[in-house]
Design brief:
Helix content is 62%, strand content 20%. It is an alpha+beta fold and 262 residues long. The longest helix has 42 residues. It is elongated.
């Protein structure tokens, strides 16, 4: 009977500690949200700020820079070679690429990742050896979302640490199993939030430029060949048609004279 009362008291303590930690997590998240709000950041104004010109009071903002650019060039291969040199110079890399060649054009699409501090320079470099026919970029402010996830993550880790401390002091099996069950559930949540945070960190540290490169292919030579072939073929065709018409007309005239003579 005493063992049962002791177990109930232990489980009650676990529930009370869990509730206290949950309330603490809510307070941390709220503080994180207030800190973000009091930063005085305006989304409309912030969207026009480039990585190299962020004011000192905006250094803590979590911003993601993305751009889409279309370039036309006269020499596709040379353009790509020199572009790769610029990407290396600015510490970036090509995360994906594809090419398509037809009779009239050669086209490539590249996804470039470059450190955010070099975003503006890399954008400008895409105009080398080509003409920019379309360009757009946007700045995504994920500060509020980032701080919210970070606050929840800290609260969950604090709760897990408390449960681990309780697990070390637990004396009976049922209590240990209950604590481990709660720790496993917390670990799943922590891993999920950590993945989201890692993805944000990657997008914030490295900006993304989606670049489309196109080269027109001149088919004037093949058109000239076709014209010359027709030029040589047509006179012979007209000559054959003329001979056939002459033979038909001559035959009819001969038959007509023969009928008259009879």
């Amino acid at each position: 009977m005493k063992m049962k009362i002791s177990n109930n008291r232990t489980i009650t303590k676990i529930i009370i500690v869990t509730l206290i930690l949950a309330m603490l997590g809510m307070v941390i998240c709220a503080c994180g949200g207030d800190a973000d709000y009091n930063g005085g950041y305006d989304n409309q104004n912030g969207s026009s700020v480039s990585p190299g010109t962020v004011p000192d009071d905006m250094k803590e903002l979590k911003l993601i820079y993305e751009a889409r650019i279309t370039v036309e060039t006269e020499d596709y291969n040379k353009y790509i070679e020199e572009l790769q040199l610029k990407i290396n110079e600015y510490g970036g890399y090509i995360s994906s690429s594809s090419e398509n060649t037809t009779e009239t054009y050669k086209r490539g699409v590249l996804t470039i990742r470059v450190p955010s501090e070099n975003f503006s320079e890399m954008k400008a470099a895409t105009a080398n050896n080509g003409v920019v026919v379309n360009s757009s970029h946007e700045v995504l402010d994920v500060t509020e979302s980032y701080m919210d996830i970070d606050g929840r993550l800290k609260a969950l880790k604090a709760e897990r640490d408390a449960l681990n401390a309780m697990l070390e002091k637990a004396e009976d099996v049922s209590t240990m199993l209950q604590i481990r069950k709660e720790i496993n559930a917390l670990n799943i949540e922590i891993e999920s939030y950590q993945r989201q945070l890692n993805k944000y960190d990657s997008q914030i540290a490295y900006s993304t430029i989606t670049l489309t490169v196109k080269q027109e292919i001149d088919n004037g030579g093949s058109g000239l060949v076709i014209f010359l072939i027709l030029l040589f073929i047509l006179p012979e065709s007209f000559l054959c048609i003329g001979i056939i018409v002459f033979i038909i007309a001559f035959t009819k005239r001969k038959k007509s004279k023969k009928l008259k003579g009879e």
